[in-house]
Every structure is written in structure tokens, then in C-alpha cells.
Fold these 3 entries.
Entry 1:
Amino acid sequence: MKQIFCLGGFSNNTATLAGSDHPNGFLCLADRSGGAKNFNDDGFRFNVIPANGKFRRLTYQVDNAPGSGKNPLVLDVNIAGSAIFPLLTINDPDTLKSQNYNTSVSAGNKAYVRSSYTTGANSPTTGDCSWSIGWESSTAGQAILGHYTCRPLVDMVPLSGTTWYYSIIGDFLSTTESSASLYASLAGTIKSFYVLASRTTFDGSGSMTFSIYKNGAEEASAQVVFNESATSGNVTGLSIAFSAGDTLSFSATGSGTITDAKTGTISFGVMYEPSTDGESIIAGGSSINLTTGTTYFSMNLFETLTAGGAEADRNVTSTGTYTLKDFRINLGTAPGVGKSRTFRVRKNGANTDIVVTISGASTSGTDSTNTATFNTEDLFAISATESGTAANSTMKWSAVMYGVDFLSLNILARPMYTI
């Protein structure tokens, strides 16, 4: 089946864009408040791909054209250590470009998107950007989800006797499972679980157990165990059924003698079979309290920062067409008597029909009636507003994506010659 991952990053972060290698996640969004990581840093961002499939299309949008006579802005996808050609290049005066691909990816491969440009006298103008990836699984009815950590200055796994929990999308982690879990927007069955680290995860003679949690309980069948020399592992043949509204997260638990948890990054990925072929989960939210006024959220990002006050900082572009339905909101705290919070899906800076309002003592709501269709290069965001001074609250959202399609590969006609 086909999926679109609408992504982005480097918001107002022109200084750290300079250089040659700035990787970000393939399946989930980079930090939209900026923070590129050098490719040679153990903290660089990547995803482990949990199923066989093909990378089909890439769209790249920037706020600012490079400038007359300036070097181009370049985006490429790296699969299993090799860049996929041709590279996607934006030259002045363009701010948007798409490229078709037909590149095979194997389960367990490392994948990331990398932005770059050549510095010097002709350094291009930089700013916000977003990109979008078209993915197609090799087997009908299979969909994928992924998490990556992008925390190069902290340990990637816990010490012995401690458990950390990771969101199924984005890069959030917590010592509390309920803080990291996100809500499924549809029913399905998890079939495989992959873990990949940028380096060995710890020193000592202990072990690190990685698991899937559903509704706050560990799934015993889905455990990947690392010793001190392991950097990858997986478990396949799973049958973890989940329903719409169930919560999902990943975990890591240290045991035995762990003398040092290494600094680096780690990625989790699951392949699942949705109950309805062609449907897939998208999700996100804010792990800290919402701000007052109107704020905006991106797709595929569970944020460790308050959502942005400018929609341009959260918009993400699409590499194809898709439709959203069953938009779900879950608040950590009810708005309070006489108060409410309203969340809307937005398209190209305008409201769609999809809306959820949560009032009084309620903490959740779903729009199961309205849908919104996005076309190639349309922009997606979510807005949040309040009526009255609503109680401080975190927010988690999810929705069902379906009807996905991206442009078929362009076949260039070649002239025939007679000798």
C-alpha cells in the first residue's frame, strides 16, 4: 500500500544549515525549531525501515529561493549508507521541486533525508523548509510507522533498573509511559518490530530490552534484546491487535551490569496491517502545555516544545494526494467549566471542514464525519484555539490517511536512430 510522510525542519535556523550534511528522519518530522546534526555525529537522525518497499517520490519546499547567482539548495535520500540519485536540487528562483524515484528498500535498512548546500561567497539564502516522501510497501496491506531519537548530547538508552518510553512517531521520550504514548486512529495488527542504534548502546555485561506497549501494558511477544555489542535487532511474525483509541508506545529497559549508557541515537519501527487496506495512521501533538492564543502543529511530530505561533513554521508540503478522516484529539487536562479548546485541520492556510471542539470536563473528541483532501504540494497544519482561559494541557492528535497516490514515474522518450 501507499503512504505519504509529510515532514520538515530547520525552522529559522540558517546558521546550522551551513555545511554539507544535515540528516533528518525518513518517517518522522525533524525538530521544526531547528537543530541540524552533522552526519558524522553519533546524534544524526535516521529511521529504521520495518518492511520491504520502495521509495517513490520526494518533494522539497523552502521559504526562500537561493538567490540570483547563489549555490542551489539540495535534498537527497540516503538508504543503507548510499545516496539515491538524482539529487533533488532547488535553483533560483524556484522554492519548490519534486522528483520521482523507484528505489527498493529492505526491512532493517537505515534511511534518512539529508539537506545540504555549498558554502562560500555564493551561499544561498536559507530559512524554513519542509519535504514529503512517497512510500509503497512491497506487500499489499502493509503500513509502517517509526520513531527516532535526535539527542546527541544525552544517553540514548536508560541505565540498569530504569525504563524509558518513546513515542511511536517523532523523537519524544519520557520516564512515564502515558506521557509518551500516542492514540491509534484506526484498528490493525502489528506484525514486526525493528530496532537500530547508531552505535553500541551501553558498556558493561548487562542487557537492554526494547518492547512495544499497548494501553500501558508491555506486549511480551514484542521484545528485542541487545547485549553490549549489539546495534540492531528485530522480531517478526507478531500478531498484536489494536483498535482505534488504543495507545501505543515503545520502551527500553536496562538490566544487569550497565556501566555507561552511550551517547547516540536509536530508531524503532513497526510494520502493521490496518484493518482496511489503504488506510494508515498519522499523529502528533505537544508534550508540554499549550500556549494561549492560536498555535499550530505539524504532521508526524510529537513535540517537546510548545507548538508554533506562526503557521509557516509548522506547514508541511505533500508529495501526492491523500484524504484525512477520523481526526481525534486527546487532552491531558479538561478545559474547565465554561471553557473550550478547538482544533482544526488546515490546508494552504485556510480551515478545512475537519474540526474538534472539547469543552468543560471532556478530555477527548473525534470528528468522524468530515474529511479533507490534499493534493500534490498542498500545505498541511493543525490550529488550536481556546475560548475562555482553558486549563493548561498537553495535546495528542491522530487521524486516518487514505486514498494516497503520487505521480507515476516519468518515462522519458528516447529517439531511435538508424545506423
Entry 2:
Amino acid sequence: MLKNKITILFSVLVFLFSVSSVFADGDTEDTKTQKDASKKAYFYKDAGNGNYFKPVVDIIAGIQHLMLDNPSIVTGKSTNEDRTVTLAMGRFGFQGREFGYLNYKFTMERNLGKTGSSIWDGNIMMSIRELYLQYDKNNIEITGGVFVDDASLDYFSEHMANFLLTDQYTRDPLVFSGLNRAQGIGIKYNVLDMAKIGVTFSSGNPLNTSASYAMRGNVTTYSSLYNAVIRGLDNANDITTYTNLTMVTPSIIVKSPKIANSFMEVKFAYQIYQINSDLLKKEDANLDGTNMRISVCLNLLDGMIKPFFNYNFRKHEQILGSDINLKDDTKYRSNVTSMGLDFNMKGVGGIGANYAIVFQDTGPHQRDDYLNIGATYWIEKDQLSVNARFTSLVTKSEGKKDDGNSDDTNIYAAVRLKI
């Protein structure tokens, strides 16, 4: 089995090398001039007041080889076959700045899908990734719309992002840690370019924010919050109309002075939230929760070496059994610890590793270990790249050696164009 995995990984690397050689060969002065011009990618840009308008294009084509080790509880042997999936995804939209103070951005995504997305009419998987207006002047940022609270995003290896952090092996540790892509309002104040102090607010149905994905345990009659909404929609039961999630997040991001082309950045965020399982009943129990997050990153030698560390601790109340009027004495708890290291060669590429442990106290404890190791080569600096990535997911339940949970091993390869 190990020999097969090594053979597959070697084949992927040979493929990527061949692709990069084809693209990199035969540059003339004319083609180099055209490439330099294309890197600007602005429809217009006013250097005087900073106004601009530009397209946002991100196209990725690649392949995934999935190896599942799903042992039978009875025999202890896996019955799964390997699977190879051809993948494609993209983001597109526009962004700009007007009046010398108003930023805006709109991007949509053709989703990756778990094993590829549909190409049939009416079945395409699309989502809005960003849609916001932002006042940005005098060190104050006020943002409204769909955006990511940057204080809620863990540091991660940039070489594992070949599918924009949308596959489960890169996405899940981030959302369990508290990633907040939300439809909300945010205010931040920049202090001497050394600290950014802010607060974000969102309220609505649980699908209003990516943070709801991590709010597990017994919080609705359908169990976890995210699953409750999805199951409700699948059963034509619009649970989104009477389930509400409100969250407030004070945060601070501190950046040290630069010394010898190196600096340190620290993020701290404290998410405070309340889950209302049924707006149609005043007597139901509102469930309170908190999520404390801290992240540290060292940017050494102008980004050549980047070690990082992240930790969060979450706890929230639960309902008693299926009775939404009563609270359980036991609280749901979880934490995510992640760390990694990137080595980069400016304008050429790099390699990196990211390791995350997701721990949930759901009665029996559950632990998920995520490992990503990736390598990137830039054919055209910051625009066209090839990437290979190895991923591993190991799931363990307390007291069970062969618990029936699948252990996944994947090899991804991708070509990415970014404008």
C-alpha cells in the first residue's frame, strides 16, 4: 500500500514538472513585456487618490487521488477502493475603490464539490464568497456585507491552499477553530500601523456565518446547529425562519516592528454567541457560548521562513435531550491546535506543512488529526502556479481502536491562474 502511494505521488510530481516546463519554455522580450503588462490587470487606476477598478479571476484545474482506510468494526479490514477525481473550480468578480475612501468587492465561486461539481444545467454549485462595502479612511475601517473577519482566520501554510481552502482537509480545521465568513458588520481601528482593534457583529439564521459549522453538540432538536438547518431544508422544513444565531467578536491584531526583514504578528479574538433554537417559543432555552482564539506567526527574512501556531477553546450550553425548554448541565467543549512551517523562495515557490488537531467532547471524546504537506512552483510570479499536496486525516473515538471512522489519505495536484 505504501509503495503504491509513493508511486502515485512521484507520478504527480513528474506531471507538474512537465506542465511547468511547457509553460516556462520559450520566453522572448515581447512575451515578457506582455506578461508584465497583464500583471497589472486594472481596468483603471488613479494614483492620485487610490481609486481603481479591477477584475478578480481565480481558475483552478486539478486532480485528486483518494485512498480511504475504513476498517470494519468486525474484521478490522478496510473494504474501500481508491478513487481518482478530476476537479475544477473558480472564483470571479471585481473589486475597487471610489471617492478616495470606499472599497468594494464582489466574488462568486464555482464550488469544488466533495468529489467534483456537476456540469449539468440547473445543478451547478455556486456561492457568494465576498460582497461588501468598506469605508476606509483616517485609520478607521467600517465594513458591511459578506466578508471574512481576519482576526478569526488561523495562520496556515500557503502551500496547502491549491484549492482555496475549500476541501475538507484544509477547511474543517479552520471552521472548527472559528473562521467567521459572515453577513455582518465590522469596525476596526488602526493604531500606528502596529495594532488593529475591532469588533464584528452578525445575526440571522445559522447559515449566515461559517462559524455555525463548529457549534456542535445537542443545541437543537436536530442536534448540531449546522446539521439542523441542512436537514431541515432537505426535508422542506424551513428551520432557518425560526432558528437564530447572534455573534459579537471583539478582536485585536498586533504587528511588531520590522527588524532584519523579520516581524511577528499576533491575533486574538473572543467570539461571544447565543443560539435561539425556536423563535416561535419565548419559553425555549437560549444557549450561550464563547470561543477564545489566539494565533501567532513569525515572518522571518522577508517571508522566506514562516512558522505559525494557533489555538482556540470553545464551550457552549446544550439543551436537555430533545426538550428545547431545558438546559443540560453538561456543556459542549472543543478545541483546535494547529501549527506549521513554510519555506519560500520569492518569485519561485516553496514548500510547507500544516498539522491540526481537532478535539471534541461529545460524550465520547473525538479527535481528528489533519496533516497537509504542499509544494508550489510559480510559473509566472503571483499569477500562474502548479502545486502538489499530500493530505492525511486520522479520526479516533475514545476507547475504540477500530471505530469504523474512515482514515483518509489524498494526493492533490493543481494548476492555478490568478488575476
Entry 3:
Amino acid sequence: MVRPAVLPPRQRAGVLGKPGQQPGRQYRQWVLQADTPFLIFASSIAHPRPYGKAKKHLYHLEITAVYGIVEAERQVTGMAKRIGSVDILKALGICSVILYHTEALPTVVNGWIGSYFMPLFFFASGLTFSAKLPKFGAFLKKKCVYLLLPYLLYLVCCAALGVAKQVIRGVAFPVKSFLLGAVSGLPNMNEYTGRAWFIFCFFVAEILFYFLLKWTKGKRTPLFLAALIFLLAGYAYAHFFRDSAAMFWRYTDGMVAVFFMAVGYLLRESVLKLKAPGLLFIVPSVGFGLLNLHINGHGLVMAYSYYGELVPMVVSALSGCLFFAALSNCLQSRYLEYLGRNTLFIYLFHFFLWAYPLPRLLGKMMTVGTTAYNWLYALLLFAEVLVIFSLLIPVYNRIMQPLQRRLLGKKNEK
């Protein structure tokens, strides 16, 4: 969907440059940072060139030149155009994460949400994974900057919170377990680092999928079979051994995640066209998700490497991914796209925002523990998280994005 935008007035003078020259650098930089390189027409009309009526077609030639330059610079700098429906898909995923972590919904509802919401992010990553692989050094650097840098900020905030608790409340801050959990990704080390297991899992999955795609040369059958082997190996190790080594850097979960990335990658063209009929995938998603919950007493809990039965787990996860992919293709929401572009920040920091005043006040007006209270508590907490993060995301991006561009060697042009 083309999003409306207005070119800043100070940059209008540099839009087209002189006849025969490239468009102004400021405008190209503005377009690169925007979501879509459109609405050049409005700028060219607002700031027309004295070509005369007989040469109005030159507007279109220069506009075409702008598109060509912008697309070339996008490819060189790695700033690929975002897919709005995928951003919405990730937004629906992070909304599911928030609702799941309220721990107030019925077991059946939480069991179904747990069956799909983590695989959904790996599936979405496969949808946008580029077939043109860069050199591994550049790929690794980019992943470190976009994944580990926010994680480092998260650790700093956790350490500050832990020290504050120790000073104010006298609660000892477990420095040793905090540092060990921070570098290992092991769960249950402390109340802070175990929550960020997804960072390790996603980082490992991205690296594994990079080499998998490189080794198979993107061929569909070898790629799927290799991803299936990764799924079976990761599932078997986590299911039968379940020792701490299996969870170090979450590499077994990363092997399972590679399968969902591969499915998203292989089905990309079909998934991005999936419409209303795809909403029927909710039936197998709910059915097999609850079946897995009934058999094992728990659904898919990747944070602790609990997978339950293999076939119900895979079917419910993929069906849930396809259902929400179809739903995201049917929706058009700038706000959801906005959330989808910032899911990592929301995931890491929503744990800090559980102690809200409004849900606590709810307990004074209703009987705690009733079904109505639990649903209202979860929805109220969910709404507060979205409101607060809508205010925090611009601040976070203003700090993090320039730093990330600088670390990747992309200078900020003004």
C-alpha cells in the first residue's frame, strides 16, 4: 500500500536538480529512509521546472531517473523495500506474545497462542530472506548490529533495574548468574536474561539458514529436505536429552526454527498472495494445537524447548502461520505496520512494563480470579502495553537507528 508522505519544504529545491543532472542528494536520502519512493509527482508539480508546455514529458523522464537511482542505492546499501503485509504479520505475532505473557487467559487460549506465535516470527523471516546472499562477513555484521545491539541495550537496562532493586528494596542482584545467562541464553538463570532466549535462537537460526541456502543453492527440494533434517535433529535432541548443553545459545531451538524459515522462504510467492480462503487454516491450527496440549499437558513452549508431539506441533504451527499470513494480507493498517517494524524492541522491553496501575486497580473493583476478571485484566494490560510502546518506539528509533547505520558504515546524510 502506498503511504502518503510530504516532502520537507527545504528539500523541494533539491528534488530534481538542474536539467540533465541527477536528483538532489537530500531528496535521494529522504526517499531511501522513507517506506516507499512515491509522491515525486506532488513535488515536481509543486516545484515545476521552466521547460515549457512542449516538454512536460521531461518531468516523467526525471521521475524515472529518480526511481532508478533510488532503487540502485537501496540495493547497494541493503535497504530493501519493506513488505507491508509481512510487517502486519509480525505485528499480529507480537500482539499474540503480549497476550500470552499476561498469563491471565484461559489455558485453552494460551495453549493455542503458544502453538504458533514463536514459529510465526521465523516463518516471517523466511518470507523476507533475500535469495541474493551477501558475503558471510557482511551478513554476520548486519545480524550482530540489528539483533545483538538491542540485546546489549536490554542487558544494560536489566542491570540498572537489578541494581535499583538492590538499593531500594534490598533484593540482591545475582551478578554471576546474570552474566552467565547473558552470554549463554540458558533459561532459569535469573529473572532477566532467560526472557531474551529468542535473540540467541533467532541469531543461530539466521546463521544456519544462510549456510543452508548457500549449500543447497536455493533449490527447493534439497532446501526443504535439509530443513526437515534440521527439524528432526533439533526436536530429537531437545525431546530426549533436555540437558543444559541443548539450550546453550539455543542452537537446538535454532535448528527447529530453520524449518519454519525454510517453509516461509519456499512458500513466499504463494503466502504473499494468500487471501480470505486462507483464513480457514485456523481450523487445523486450533485443532492440532489443542490436541498437542491435551496429549502433553502443555503446548509448544520454545523458551524451554518443550515441543510436545512432533506432527501436531508442526501442523498447528504452520497452520497458524498461514492463517495469520492470510489475515495480514486482508488488513491494511499503518499502525500495525508501524508495530511490525519494531517487534524486537517490543519483545525485549515489554517485560519491564508488567506492573501497571490500571490492572492493579481492577482487582479492587472485581473479584480476582474470575473469568471476567482474567479476560479484562489481559485486555487492559495488552492495551496499556501498546499505548506505552507507541510513545517509546520513536525515542528508541531516534537513538538506535543512527547508531546501527553508523556501525554498518552508512553515513547519515543531512
